């Protein structure tokens, strides 16, 4: 797909549109629900993941997949959806965005969704088919008719690549060069892409070759303040200072959006 002279893959373009929708839709009373088997960077871009709120993990293969959904080290806190049994139909671990009936301080909880076995669905569909046959309203594939495409796929592809305003904004924002050291931090997070929610300050300064005090001061000026969280170390779980990944990505997004709105490109050299 070509948007404003820049070529994007269909997946990249859809990711940009979903990110825009996830940020704007709640104000219009719309709730965006995304489902995937393994939400890594190839299926859900980091910018999109940063603006998603509640997370719900059904049974997965191992704890790594569970952490990708629920957040870094959630398995060490007792929340691991890989431990759910095959018999736990419709059961998953919910990490809510906001207060729940269980209380505002609840990090996550195991819940069961409304669940209907396949046998019940089959019985329901067969009964519905019988009623439609009796009324003579059965049509389409169920009646043996050839399905007619409702959309002209070529026209849809052309429309998607026509450069809608919101897509153009997304492309311009992606081209904005972030100031250092935030640019280096974002690049580092995208390279790691391990699904965690928190990154220690010590890890960042070591990986990027920066001085701790200067790094902290520069990040504050860019709207990023460090916090404390518990992370596993060689000596056990310890509380360390660092940054929430969602806060870092949100700060980068704010700077990009501000540059687009003001018609400016932020110089990468401070």
Automatic annotation (TrEMBL):
Gene Ontology biological process: cell division
InterPro entries recorded: P-loop_NTPase
Name of this protein: Cell division protein FtsK
Record keyword Cell cycle present: yes
Keywords annotated in UniProt: Cell cycle, Cell division
